[in-house]
Amino acid sequence: MRLGPASLLSVFVLAAAPFVHAQSAAMNLPQNITAGSAFSIPTSGSGQGTITIVGPAQALRRNVQLGESVSFPAGVLYDAGSYVVVLDAGSSISAGTLTVTPANQPATLSFLAEPSRLPVSLPDGISGAAYVFDAYHNLITQPLPVAFNLTGQAGADQTRNVTSANGVAWTRMNSAAKEGSAKFIASVGGVSSTRIIEEVPGDPCNLIISAKPDGANVLVATAPVRDCSGNPVPDGTIVTFTENYNGTQSTADVPLKRDIASVEMPAHPGATISVASGVVAGNEVRWEGH
């Protein structure tokens, strides 16, 4: 079972009960210290003693000449949290608590961004969260200004300035209108972290087909397929052609190749041919046999 600072203090006080009448040793604890900073604990009394500091992830022990200060150099106490401090002089024991707070100077960022790939022109489609840590990996809970920047396409840069709360700052960004790679950067206090976001074309938009005779068949082809922002839709995207004639229906699924999909279908006079890709439908042509 892991004991908290209050429980640890109770244990020390109970252990010291036989010596409570002796008050010759005492110490003056700092209320707060910054993680990793040097500090000292003045003591009073005479003779020899030991000071023990016990906290969430650290325990320190020092011999002390009572009446003098015991010094702790920088970098010795670095995990943020509450600590129990016990001065044991043999005939008397005193105890107290001190708090180690995170340093306010950021040293590292843990930056999470998602998704890593998404369609263009998606409002609030990109989210980012930055966790700010000091040099000893303590989460800095004091408010800090964090800047988020999304850049990659000309004229599409976005910046958000957010104040962290309890060590974290987050934001949302729109994906750009043009496809390509974008850099998503979080920065605070001279420290930055970058993630790459791939912005890809969206669904096909404004599908248009035309038909022309091809021997005994009709050749049906799309115009170059674009998304609603004008980006070429990737090759391999499936386009479905449907021919209806005299109560019967035939379909053909064709992948885009160099922005265009085409297929040969039976040349039935009076047949109607339509096109779709996913949930997006295009125009319809009627084949009259010419």
Task: Outline the structure in words.
The protein is built from one helix and 25 strands. The chain has one helix spanning 5-15; strands at residues 26-27, 32-34, 39-44, 48-54, 59-65, 69-72, 81-88, 93-101, 108-114, 117-119, 126-133, 145-151, 158-163, 168-173, 180-188, 191-200, 204-205, 209-214, 217-222, 226-227, 238-245, 248-255, 262-266, 271-277, 280-287. The protein is rod-shaped and about 115 Å long.
Topology of this protein?
Elements (H helix, E strand, L loop, with lengths): L4 H11 L10 E2 L4 E3 L4 E6 L3 E7 L4 E7 L3 E4 L8 E8 L4 E9 L6 E7 L2 E3 L6 E8 L11 E7 L6 E6 L4 E6 L6 E9 L2 E10 L3 E2 L3 E6 L2 E6 L3 E2 L10 E8 L2 E8 L6 E5 L4 E7 L2 E8 L3
Parallel strand pairs: 2-8, 10-16
Antiparallel strand pairs: 1-3, 3-6, 4-5, 4-7, 7-8, 9-11, 11-14, 12-13, 12-15, 15-16, 17-20, 18-19, 19-23, 21-22, 21-24, 24-25
